Amino acid sequence: MNQCCCSINPKSITPHYSRKPSQSINMVQVPPGRVHLNPDEPDDVYPMFGVTAVPPKKAGTIRIWVDGCFDMLHFGHTNAIRQAASLGAELFVGSHSDEEIIRYKGPPIMHADERYEALRGCKWVTFVVENYPYVTRLKDMDRFEIDFVAHGDDISVDLNGRNSYQEIIDAGRFKVVKRTDGISTTDLVGRMLLCTKDHLQDNNVHVPPENLADTSLRYLTTSRKIVQFSNNTTPKSDDKIVYVDGSFDLFHIGHMRVLEKARSFGTYVIAGIHEDDVVNRQKGKNYPIMNLNERVLGVLSCRYVDEVVMGVPFRVTKDLIDKLNIDVVVAGRNLEDVDASESDVEGGSPSTPYDVPKGLGIFHEVDSGTDLTTDRLIERVVENRRAFLERQAAKKKKDSASELAKPAEYKNIREVC
Fold it and tell me: SS3 for 278?
């Protein structure tokens, strides 16, 4: 990994602790609403936190661990999480602070609290450990009663070039899962920086040679992958069905909170996702950043969603309501929470996608409580363009070196179904 000197605004960093190694345990500043998970180690420079105490482990339970940055949590991350979760009954996830990510990789896009919340909203995650160190420590695995640590088949190294999981490997508690090709935070940043539409489906726009993101490796979604991500449930006769639609581009906690609040209006949540061309007509520029298949997998990873419908109309029609047996339609108060903006003018007056459910008295607005939107995420990248370009170049070199140095046992790893 390469260190990165960047111009990221320090005010955008929310520190999760403030204590020097020599300070006593009483000096640890526990964030509001958090539990200190290692209070017995006053000299640990990594005080770890959770929203609750660590749940007790049941006898005979296999507990798996994964850790990482999980910046802009996308389906590549969640596919690794899904595979890791399948190795046991419980999945613990450790995620790093902003400062730790800057030290090892460069500036993150999402703030620490946003990354932690996104992980808690992932349906395969049992427990999230906040402010976890970049190099995985065996003592922490013992503390959390972890049986095995899982990681993708790409090598993660510390600042000295040593495998950051070496201590775990030496203890015989390491498992390798298949990394998802064709998607990465680096690729998504490249799309935002370079404003190419090449990632959209059925689009043959030329990729400029200076493009640092290898868009030739676009992910090809299969029916098997959708089944792996699906809940495989159907509404019961007594379910109250809630419908939320949008592009869900760069799926983030603004989307997630709207979906979570939507559950309070019913018992079965359906997310309707717009086609690429529909989103592009409404938002212009190079939207959506992620194509339909990528956005579907992102939404299916969310624990608040029961079903996804692909390619829904921009307007919620009576026919759609009847076919899906929808009882309630929900949208974010800030319509960008679900990326559904006001549409054109019909009959001389402004119309919205929700005129029909409003007329039927089944429409509700909810507030996500965050100003985070797809546009705001792109603004963060653009504001720190130089730092992200440097990170892109460093990541490309690192990936090439990792591939050459990959151990034989990491090669030909099959994906866990």
Answer: helix
